[in-house]
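Risk register update: the risk of archive-format incompatibility is retired. Evidence:
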Amino acid sequence: QAMKTWQFYAIWWLFFTNITCVIALLSVASPMAQDVVGMSPLAAASMVGLIGLMNGAGRIAWATVSDYLGRSATYVLFFLIEILAFWQLARVTSAFSFQVLVLLIISCYGGGFSCMPAYLSDIFGTRELSAIHGCVLTAWGVAGVVGPTLVSLLRERTQGYTTILLFFAGLFVVNFAVATVLKLYGKRQAAAALRQACV
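Archived output:
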């Protein structure tokens, strides 16, 4: 019944877009660091190592934050941060600023995973939560293919990273709008739809 609601597909889109953009960034993080801000191969490799740590730290930190802000508000905050971070990443020239922005984006990526089960529970309830979560996770599999493919195609066409990063910032503007609608109307309308379906 949850899969018959618009909320399910809105959440699937949010998850898919977040993963697509960040996986695309991860796939070019090292060469981009060297080409754009002049980091050495060793420094770029060290940054990639920090990315793994920030992914894990972001899962813990953002899950904690979401307990206070609420999951819907946390997702709105994720996308606001990522709009600004990708937009700034398109114009950054400092190696330090580049790394801070990339690691901030990665923390939101990790947080998106850790907060998702509770977010689904807030909207659809706990009944069949594992099955609903499993369906939403298909977005991860699709994004794993789309992200690197998309960044490769855009990189070949534009011969740079600026257009790619601004395109991703635009996608997060869409995500911000969808997440805001979900925050305002998602839980109430989903509960009503599920109650009607169970009658």
